[in-house]
């Protein structure tokens, strides 16, 4: 089977998202210039550098009230900061509720009954109970090919780790079981890990 994406595909649903999986979920919190907090999940998300630590996420759709993008990107464009909240399996329903296309004045923390806490290095709220939070300052927003495709890059300026996820000096993901995005409407949970050493180690 071969097809060119520019020609479309012969399937009931686009298989692209199901090919590049599993994808970590960046639960991005931002604050508007009016003080309204926003929280939304993005599965085009990853860490991209160690020193200094940097992350990115991409937004690929738009809302009519946000000038060609969504609340998260619009808020970051205005304020220059955002927080990445790591999603554990136990918070899947709350995360899913925040994925709705709510009006810009809706605080998704309140809407999904998620406790918030203040960030330390930026003026932004974070998910208080998340296994980890990455406070970020914007480094650049890249407009990718496509009408509403924006990649947002940020430098991590503060890291919160939940104490119960630290085991023998390591951040143990099996303690909270990260939620990962698959294709279609599918998700996966990381419950098991294994170690591989690189050649020469």
UniProtKB/TrEMBL annotation:
The lineage of its organism: Bacteria, Pseudomonadati, Pseudomonadota, Alphaproteobacteria, Rhodobacterales. InterPro entries: Flavin_Rdtase-like_dom, Split_barrel_FMN-bd. This is Flavin reductase (DIM6/NTAB) family NADH-FMN oxidoreductase RutF. One of its GO terms (molecular function) is oxidoreductase activity, acting on the CH-NH group of donors, NAD or NADP as acceptor. Pfam families: Flavin_Reduct (PF01613). Residues 18-173 form the Flavin reductase like domain. PANTHER family: BLR2425 PROTEIN, FLAVIN REDUCTASE LIKE DOMAIN-CONTAINING PROTEIN. SMART domains: Flavin_Reduct (SM00903).
């Amino acid at each position: 089977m071969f097809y060119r994406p520019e020609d479309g595909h012969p399937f009931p649903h686009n298989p692209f998202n199901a090919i590049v999986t599993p994808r970590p979920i960046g639960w991005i919190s931002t604050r508007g210039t009016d003080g309204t907090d926003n929280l939304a999940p993005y599965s085009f998300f990853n860490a991209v550098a160690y020193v200094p630590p940097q992350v990115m996420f991409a937004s690929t759709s738009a809302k009519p009230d946000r000038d060609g993008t969504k609340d998260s990107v619009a808020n970051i464009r205005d304020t220059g900061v955002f927080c990445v909240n790591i999603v554990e399996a136990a918070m899947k329903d709350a995360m899913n509720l925040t994925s709705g296309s709510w009006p810009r004045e809706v605080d998704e923390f309140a809407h999904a009954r998620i406790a918030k806490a203040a960030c330390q290095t930026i003026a932004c709220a974070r998910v208080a109970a998340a296994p980890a939070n990455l406070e970020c300052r914007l480094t650049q927003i890249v407009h990718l090919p496509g009408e509403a495709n924006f990649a947002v890059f940020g430098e991590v300026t503060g890291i919160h780790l939940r104490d119960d996820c630290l085991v023998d000096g390591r951040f143990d993901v099996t303690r909270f079981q990260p939620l990962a995005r698959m294709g279609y409407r599918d998700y996966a949970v990381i419950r098991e890990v294994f170690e591989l050493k690189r050649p020469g180690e």
